[in-house]
Amino acid sequence: MIFDEKHECMPLDSLRELQEKRLRAAVKVAYEKVAHYKRVFDENRLKPEDIKTLDDLDKIPFTYKNDLRDNYPFGMLAVPLHDVAEIHASSGTTGNPTVVAYTKNDIALWSHVMARTFACAGATPNDIVQNAYGYGLFTGGLGFHYGALELGASIVPTSSGQTKRQLKLIQDFGSTVITCTPSYSVHMAEEAMASGIDPRTTTIRLGILGAEPWSEEMRREIEEKWAMDAIDIYGLSEIIGPGVAVECPAKNGLHLFSDHFFPEIINPETGERLPDGGRGELVLTTLTKEALPLLRFRVGDITSITHEPCEACGRTMPRIAKIFGRTDDMLIVRGINVFPSQIESVLLSVEGAEPHYLIVVDRERGLDRLEIQVEVSQQLFTDEVKGLETLRDKISDEIENVLGVKAAVKLVEPQTIERSMGKAKRVIDNRRI
Amino acid sequence: MKIKQLSLFLENTSGRLVDALSLLGDARINIRALSLSDTSDFGILRLIVNDVDKAYQILTDKHYTVLKSDVVAVEVEDRPGALVDILRILKDAEINVEYTYAFVERGGEQAILIFRFDDMEKGIRVLQGKGVTLLTADQVRTR
Questions:
Q1: Which end of chain B has fewer CB atoms < 10 Å from its terminal CB, N or C?
Q2: What is the DSSP letter of A63?
């Protein structure tokens, strides 16, 4: 099923025309309503009228995550707060979270692209969607909720966690679609088998999985464990949340809804745009967002793009490859973005000095496990066990406060964390992604 | 009447204790008493040695986390009830024991109790006031 055939299958020349019309309007609004963009344009002696076609896009300087942080909380908004309907936030790297806001029209757009997403993945209005993405400031929960609502499916808003209850409701309600992170779907399957339920025999037939990178091997494992289709979805809160791109059942790239979010792939070093098939950093421009328009936003994810229409489903939306990795040191743990610098600032705030530390990420029974090893320096050391335990718990609590994800803190001896080129290695990721 | 103790941070993994102690053995440092507090992840090794400064230097040179801290050494008769007598005095004076460990003197007649109190000064004052024998570092080294 194609939810919005008119746009999703639009002939490429009409699509380009629509994108250019929307781009001109978006640039005008950004310039007139957002001080940051006015300054950037003026500094570069650029006028909104200079951006006429998609080929003019590369005249506009990039927007970075830092620009959002520097304008915390509402400096990047193009509308007065009075017109904002919903505000979300993700954990920040330096204390301040990244804030994103939606007008009522933005929420309608989000619902619409998420309804497209559900339909593209293979869901229908007859499905019972169990939404196990976290509800709250994280955009995953509500994004999927709005989409299922717009599609006309039945929603079971379980949110994340409470795996036993998730399994009971799947069985009792006959849920047919599960939406969650890929790692959580593995965890659920393993919990099910441990309590004598074969996930293959449940009514679940489709999983729409995202918010963290995952491999084809992991897809095969999930599809086999659940006897379901496992579909990859892509999005980020700065652009809209989930609903930017999704696979069709052919699983041959993620269809990116480019009539609303215009994609470029660039060489992250030089900023030059790459041709189809070239692997580089994804850059997105919002064409229709009201509250938080972003021009050429550096997403940080590495992928490639093809503009060939999909032979399987007929959509003309360009397709991006499964995400290969990041341009920065950002980790995604249980769907939450984690930067080593966040951990650094916590350690700094707890002890006033930055000890050597190592972030170790493992996947145990499908769930990500974050461990922070902290070298106990002379300054941190106290002669009493309870002092060290207090220190450990304080670090652990503070990390959970800042990141929104639990971390096990392990105190280790000095010089046990490997140093390379004089600088300590910060991250060991043992997950097979 | 305080004496210096060395506290050493150790990860709770196999071989850590022998690694640290063999450094001291090779340097001919004699351990008079020791205790090990452990949790599932880490432990604190506390040592009374015959040459605190040298042991401290050797361990810090090898990047161990080491702390010199103050404890008191109490000499009591090696007989049933002797420890309880001391603890009663402390309890009556509302002094809390953070930790304690003990060893028997070479002659076998006396035992030495190592104490760390929440209030060290008060602990020393109270024990001395009750006529309890507190040992100096030299005395601990030679007995």
A1: C
A2: B
Residue numbers in A near B99 (CB within 8 A): 384
- What would the mean pLDDT of A394-405 be, rounded to a whole number? 88
Per-residue pLDDT, A174: 97
- Sketch the domain layout of chain B as residue ranges: 3-69, 71-142
Subunit contact A389:B66, Cβ cutoff 8 A? no
* B71-142 fold: VC0802-like (3.30.2130)
| Segment A67-70 long-range contacts (CB within 8 Å, at least 24 positions apart) | A67/A36, A68/A98, A68/A99, A68/A238, A69/A93, A69/A94, A69/A96, A69/A98
Q: A163-173 and A182-194 helices cross at what angle (nearest 10)?
A: 80
Higher local confidence (pLDDT), B28 or A215: B28
Check B64 against A410: CB less than 8 A apart. Answer: no
Q: Are A146 and A256 in contact (CB under 8 A)?
A: no
Scanning B10-39 for CB atoms below 8 A from A yields: 10-11, 16, 37, 39
Select from B65, B116, B117 the residue whose CB has the most chain A CBs within 10 Å, as the one to mutate to test that interface: B65
Amino acid at A218: M
Nearest residue, CB atoms, A381 vs list B5, B9, B11 = B9
Q: What average pLDDT does the segment B30-43 reach?
A: 90
**Which two structure tokens, joined as six digits, stand for A224?**
């086999």
Does the predicted interface ipTM exceed a cut of 0.85? no
pLDDT at A94 over 70: no
User: Residue A423's pLDDT is what?
Assistant: 46
Of A24-33, A158-167, A238-247, A335-344, the range with the lowest mean pLDDT is A335-344
Structural domains of chain A in order of their starting residue, each with its CATH number: 70-327 (3.40.50.12780), 336-429 (3.30.300.30)
Closest-CA residue to A377 (of A358, A395, A357, A360)? A357
- The number of C-beta contacts closer than 8 angstroms across A and B is 53
CATH superfamily for B3-69 is VC0802-like (3.30.2130.10)
- What string of DSSP letters covers A115-154? HHHHHHHT--TT-EEEE-SPPSSSHHHHHHHHHHHHHT-E
**Do the domains at B3-69 and B71-142 have one common CATH topology?**
yes
Asked if A208 and A118 count as a contact pair (C-beta separation under 8 A), the reply is yes
Q: Mean pLDDT over all residues of chain A? A: 92
- Give yes or no for residue A297 having a pLDDT over 90: yes
What burial class does residue B53 get, using C-beta atoms within 10 Å of its C-beta: 0-12 exposed, 13-18 middle, 19+ buried?
exposed
The minimal CB distance from A383 to the residues B39, B44, B60 is found for B44
> Tokens in use for A113?
């692209």
Going by C-beta distance under 8 Å and a sequence separation of 6 or more, which residues neighbour residue A234? A210, A242, A244, A245, A246, A254, A256, A320, A323
Pick from B96, B81, B41: which is nearest to A388 by CA? B41
pLDDT confidence band for A235 (50 / 70 / 90):
very high
Structure tokens at A382: 């106290």
Interchain contact A384–B (C-beta under 8 A): yes
